[in-house]
Design a protein that fits this description.
Number of helices: 11
Shape: elongated
Helix content: 40-55%
CATH topology of the largest domain: BirA Bifunctional Protein, domain 2
CATH architecture of the largest domain: 2-Layer Sandwich
Order of helices and strands: HHHHHEEHEHEEHEEEHEHH
Strand order of the largest sheet: 1-4-5-9-8-7-6
Structural class: alpha+beta
Distance between the termini: 79 Å
Low-confidence stretches: none
Mean pLDDT: 92
Bound molecules: 3,4-dihydroxyphenylalanine
Number of strands: 9
Radius of gyration: 38 Å
Oligomer: single chain
């Protein structure tokens, strides 16, 4: 014990003098002060000493330990300061910045924003509703007969007998009318879900924008004027358009709006399947049964409604041939549509 104490006393300070960096400092700590270091080793041996020797060596060991620790602390502080100063001196404020990869606004959101801003300019307010809907809002209140094929399991993701993932944004029309009296002038963008096979043309999730206007004396000609205004703002003022009769349970009469294909300008091509026309939305006059289901006087009020699929519009507009790429969130794809 005596010789060991002496050897540590004689060696530590020379060793500490040779410490110049964090690495050699750590080596010193492990050798002298570590859990298996020389001082701990001596404390272990101390336990086996005869009782008569313990007071003497106990005191000496404690003094030695504190002295080495104090000397170590002084050097540690000096070296840490020096290493921080060295790091700071490497800081060069004149270096050019590293580009941050910020991502980009999704093409679907850009399209939605554009549609919203057009309708806002002509007095439409913007509303949303739940993506999990009841059968009542998604179908019954919209005048779907009980045996309508759209209720079939093939199209709808049912959660249970009464709840489902909404298959269109049209149920939000019911929610607005239930809580608001006419006049109503609103659009309802949102996600919708269909239990369809996933392929280049269809996906289980997509976006729609529905719209509804209700007041006294609302006419089909106002419906046409509004949708023509929208189509010209969105697709360009030189497009041609047409309305074809169609069927939706919640509108009567119902129509679909086509515009001239923007790729071939109506001549016929792959995109428009050689017809020269592209269908862009469904619309019609609100069926009086729908007014009854929200408690509106269907003698007093008339209204029109419309609905469009956003992915379809974006795919057509940018000539993208696979809908699935819109759901990959690959920034390399999305960045191409910046701004
Ligand atoms: N909900 C219809 C669909 O998903 C689209 C639609 C057509 C909405 C006519 C409407 C409308 O509001 O009036 O296919």
């Amino acid at each position: 014990m005596e010789t060991k104490i002496k050897s540590v006393k004689e060696s530590y300070s020379a060793h500490l003098d040779s410490v110049t960096d964090l690495k050699s400092l750590e080596e010193f700590r492990i050798k002298y002060l570590g859990r298996n270091g020389l001082i701990s080793e001596m404390f272990e041996e101390f336990k086996a000493l005869p009782g008569s020797e313990k007071p003497k060596y106990g005191k000496e060991l404690n003094v030695l330990k504190n002295t080495v620790q104090a000397a170590f602390d002084v050097v540690k502080e000096r070296i840490e300061k020096a290493s921080k100063a060295a790091k700071d001196s490497l800081f060069d404020p004149t270096l050019p910045p590293v580009a941050v990869n910020t991502g980009t606004k999704h093409l679907i959101n850009q399209t939605l924003d554009e549609i919203k801003s057009i309708f806002k300019r002509i007095g439409f307010s913007i509303h949303s509703g739940p993506e999990i809907e009841s059968d009542y809002y998604n179908f019954s209140a919209l005048n779907f007969p009980d045996d309508h094929p759209a209720r079939d399991m093939q199209d709808t993701f049912f959660i249970n007998k009464n709840y489902l993932l909404r298959t269109h944004t049209t149920p939000v029309q019911i929610r607005i009318m239930e809580t608001t009296q006419p006049p109503i002038r609103a659009i309802m963008p949102g996600k919708v879900f269909r239990n369809e096979a996933i392929n280049a043309r269809s996906y289980c999730l997509f976006h729609q924008v529905d719209g509804i206007v209700v007041d006294t004396n609302v006419t089909f000609s106002e419906l046409k004027a509004t949708l023509v205004f929208f189509a010209k703002e969105f697709y360009g003022s030189n497009i041609k358009y047409r309305f074809r009769t169609s069927f939706f349970p919640f509108t009567e009469p119902s129509a679909e709006m086509d515009i001239t294909c923007f790729l071939c300008k109506g001549k016929g091509c792959r995109i428009c399947k050689q017809s020269g026309w592209l269908e862009i939305l469904g619309c019609g006059m609100v069926d009086p049964n729908v007014f009854s289901s929200v408690g509106y006087d269907n003698e007093k009020y008339t209204g029109y409604a419309f609905g469009m699929g956003i992915e379809r519009i974006a795919l057509l507009k940018y000539d993208i041939d696979d809908i699935r790429i819109l759901f990959d969130n690959d920034v390399r794809f999305l960045k191409q549509f910046n701004g």
